[in-house]
Amino acid sequence: MTKVQPGLETPAQPLYLAPMNDLSAAPRPERQRKPDWIRVKAPTSEGFAKTRALMRSKNLVTVCEEAACPNIGECWTKKHATVMILGDVCTRACRFCNVKTGMPRKVDPLEPQHVAEAAAQMGLEHIVITSVDRDDLPDGGASQFVKVIEEIRKANPTTTIEILTPDFRNKHEAAIEAIVAARPDVYNHNLETVPRLYPTIRPGARYYASLRLLETVKRLDPTIFTKSGIMLGLGEQRLEVHQVMDDMRSADIDFLTMGQYLQPTPRHAKVEEFVTPAAFQAYGAIGRAKGFLQVASSPLTRSSYHAGEDFAEMKAAREAKLAKAGK
Asked: Domain residues for 290?
């Protein structure tokens, strides 16, 4: 891995800041007009309405809505949804994220059961579970991830499970160990951007702490697929993106996702560049050349976009690689 840059391992800011959506003092830069390749149609299908109704009936939150994902219409029409556990209020205030910031509510003890029931009713073959950051909890919410995994396994033993966790920064490694012991099929944690931009884009996190988390998962259980992603268009340089890829491979990360950053509101970090589809394709080719089992790179790529199909392809790629090695 590369040498830690000065300032990237300094103490985090206070946990509870002014709500992200109430940053009245924050500047409101002009928002760039979206190019044609990033535009999507508003969701209107019957499948979308049914998925939304199911989420409401189970009192579940989805990152699809909270993060204003541009793919929500397509995914919900296909009955694909990424469930966000541990509430809808985050203890951090990242400059790219549309999730509310503040003091979260108590953890819902019925949430794991409701997630499993929703997965069963939707007939999911692959489910993605994420969460807000819960720095207020002793284990960062790791035990809730474990309970959700266990409930899904009981109700839907054939459903493959992908989790997208916070960094559990300043928590004991036992939090990560507990989740790994529950054996999700894919462990995802996003680096989000290049290390130079962490102080302004992801101030409550540390780049190398996130890398170490994924490295720890692989060390504890090499059979679990690891996954991470970054956003492009925040002002990163091409060689910085290449270095992040190298850092990920040094941590033995299997799956890389890259997508276009979109500014949720005028108060969030502005889009510095709309990266072209051709540039995303070039980044994807470089990622595959560097040895990732799977790379998803396009303007509309998000962590859980086409997650089930990508998991199947990644699993097949590993089996082919092992067969070639004679293992």
From this structure: 43-325
